[in-house]
């Protein structure tokens, strides 16, 4: 039997290969529009990345006894939404970042207008892919579209980004900080897990409830580790400027709890995420592995 580390490494490698192949296939057949726009879209989507959200989608499908085939397109659609959000977050009007994944951000590599349009195009493309996702009945496709729209819109990721921008230079309570990150980061992570589970026609409400708790807790853990990496990470490893949150006076978990307190909280979140999977047998092992990976990652 493979060790958890070997199992996770194999899974993540396979996931990246399958998702990248699907992204390449779909983007290559995206039509004959503006070549510059298409180049910016490809630059943003295919320029690296850990593919954590697609991996969570595939791992959740496995947790409810489904093969990965029916989850590949939904997982790829999640990556499009993630890529679009990074393009827009990096813009001068937002976080004004010039480095992402170890190379120039999209608006630097191209220009601001092209970057905005590339993000817009990727966002709408994601829903088009879901509407035609193979191997799923219309009811499931509709449920996934609803899930992704809620997670990425004003009640999810976009709403969280708005709160983030409004909070720069302000003192937040831990409750206010968590509200922001449950929207900005956690909502799309939760959608990733729930969409993977929805590939199973016989998924139960109890299973969805447990996976929702897992994913929401993991979303917070992801952000706590992100905040720690911002103060402890190496720019050449994390792929973006170290200390950028501190430089912009953004509220973070270390700034509220201290570094040691943030690490303690991260351990508590990991324990809670794992506890939510107690009702799953070995089929939930990939989700358990992913939780450990999220809190121990270095970039």
UniProtKB/TrEMBL annotation:
Belongs to the FPP/GGPP synthase family. PROSITE patterns: POLYPRENYL_SYNTHASE_1 (PS00723), POLYPRENYL_SYNTHASE_2 (PS00444). It comes from Marinobacter iranensis. Its cofactor is Mg(2+). This is Polyprenyl synthetase family protein. Gene3D superfamilies: Farnesyl Diphosphate Synthase (1.10.600.10). Pfam families: polyprenyl_synt. Keywords: Isoprene biosynthesis, Magnesium, Metal-binding, Transferase. CDD domains: Trans_IPPS_HT.
């Amino acid at each position: 039997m493979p060790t958890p580390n070997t199992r996770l490494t194999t899974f993540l490698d396979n996931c990246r290969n399958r998702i990248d192949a699907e992204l390449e296939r779909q983007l290559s057949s995206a039509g004959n529009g503006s070549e510059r726009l298409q180049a910016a879209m490809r630059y943003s989507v295919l320029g690296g990345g850990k593919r954590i959200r697609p991996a969570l989608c595939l791992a959740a499908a496995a947790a409810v006894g489904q093969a990965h085939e029916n989850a590949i397109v939904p997982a790829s659609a999640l990556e499009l939404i993630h890529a679009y959000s990074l393009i827009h977050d990096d813009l001068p009007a937002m976080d004004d970042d010039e480095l992402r994944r170890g190379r120039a951000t999209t608006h630097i590599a191209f220009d601001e207008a092209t970057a905005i349009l590339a993000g817009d195009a990727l966002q709408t493309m994601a829903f088009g892919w879901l509407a035609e996702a193979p191997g799923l009945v219309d009811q499931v496709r509709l449920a996934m579209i609803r899930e992704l729209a809620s997670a990425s819109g004003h009640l999810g990721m976009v709403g969280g980004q708005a709160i983030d921008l409004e909070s720069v230079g302000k003192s937040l309570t831990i409750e206010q900080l968590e509200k922001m990150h449950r929207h900005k980061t956690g909502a799309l992570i939760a959608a990733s897990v729930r969409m993977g589970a929805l590939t199973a026609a016989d998924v139960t409400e109890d299973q969805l409830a447990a996976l929702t708790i897992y994913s929401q807790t993991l979303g917070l853990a992801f952000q706590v580790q992100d905040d720690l990496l911002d103060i402890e990470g190496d720019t050449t490893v994390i792929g973006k400027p170290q200390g950028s949150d501190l430089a912009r006076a953004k509220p973070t978990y270390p700034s509220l709890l201290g570094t040691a307190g943030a690490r303690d909280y991260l351990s508590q979140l990991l324990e809670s995420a794992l506890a939510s999977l107690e009702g799953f047998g070995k089929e939930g092992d990939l989700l358990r592995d992913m939780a450990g990976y999220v809190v121990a990652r270095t970039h």
